[in-house]
């Protein structure tokens, strides 16, 4: 998941960068509003972290241009020291999806960011997913393998959903853990156990194992472009 931090205070930007990178995000920083708007419009992001008091173009103006002129619906989490109700209402009226007042907890930033991305992805990924002979209906929480119903725990269902959203792409362990549990896990066996359970459920009738481990990095569902929709 790719996140752009638009923040002119370098200490704050670096703290956010280090925390989010450690959580498995791919992160970039824009030190002013003009650069931030340019990067937001010319690259693909899963979310923006946007300060309001920026040189060149303030965060409110940037967000409005993003929404009204560019038609972008990328999730925006505003981070600011402005803490009145009017400030918050102004942020939302300019197109923010969420608003967090400084000083804030990095864990809360991570939790809100994860919720925004999850909600945004839910709007565009509710259609049935299919990779090879595995079929997942996210709305019904229903999985089939070659017509056979596959029963999965909620966490394994989340894991399969994430893998099927990006077939053939290796997804980092930290990214998977953050998406499922809200942050990287200290116990590396937790994710490994869920991958094992998912594999067992998907191969219970003797089907080939499509989940590939890239040791020291992460996992992918290996299906080939011809089989992924």
UniProtKB/TrEMBL annotation:
CDD domains: REC_OmpR, trans_reg_C. It comes from the Bacteria. Residues 126-223 form the OmpR/PhoB-type domain. Keywords: DNA-binding, Phosphoprotein, Transcription, Transcription regulation, Two-component regulatory system. The keyword Transcription applies. One of its GO terms (molecular function) is phosphorelay response regulator activity. GO terms for biological process: regulation of DNA-templated transcription. Residues 126-223 bind DNA. The modification 4-aspartylphosphate is found at residue 51. The keyword 4Fe-4S does not apply. Residues 2-117 form the Response regulatory domain. GO terms for cellular component: cytosol; protein-DNA complex. InterPro entries: CheY-like_superfamily (IPR011006), OmpR/PhoB-type_DNA-bd (IPR001867), Sig_transdc_resp-reg_receiver (IPR001789), WalR-like (IPR039420), WH-like_DNA-bd_sf (IPR036388). PANTHER family: REGULATOR OF RPOS. This is Response regulator.
């Amino acid at each position: 998941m790719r996140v752009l931090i638009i923040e002119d205070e370098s200490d704050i930007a670096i703290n956010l960068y280090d925390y989010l990178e450690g959580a498995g995000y791919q992160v970039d920083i824009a030190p002013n509003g003009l650069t931030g708007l340019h990067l937001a419009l010319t690259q693909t992001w899963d979310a923006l972290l946007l300060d309001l008091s920026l040189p060149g173009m303030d965060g409110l103006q940037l967000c409005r241009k993003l929404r009204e002129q560019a038609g972008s619906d990328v999730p925006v989490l505003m981070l600011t020291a402005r803490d009145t109700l009017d400030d918050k209402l102004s942020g939302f009226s300019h197109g923010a999806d969420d608003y967090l007042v400084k000083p804030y907890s990095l864990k809360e930033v991570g939790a809100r960011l994860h919720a925004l991305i999850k909600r945004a992805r839910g709007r565009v990924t509710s259609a049935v997913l299919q990779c090879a002979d595995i079929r997942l209906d996210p709305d019904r929480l229903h999985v089939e393998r070659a017509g056979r119903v596959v029963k999965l725990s909620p966490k394994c269902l989340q894991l399969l959903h994430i893998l099927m959203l990006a077939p053939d792409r290796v997804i980092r362990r930290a990214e998977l853990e953050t998406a499922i549990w809200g942050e990287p896990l200290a116990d590396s066996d937790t994710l490994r156990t869920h991958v094992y359970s998912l594999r067992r459920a998907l191969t219970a009738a003797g089907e080939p194992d499509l989940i590939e481990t890239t040791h020291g990095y992460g996992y992918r569902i290996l299906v080939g472009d011809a089989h992924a929709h």
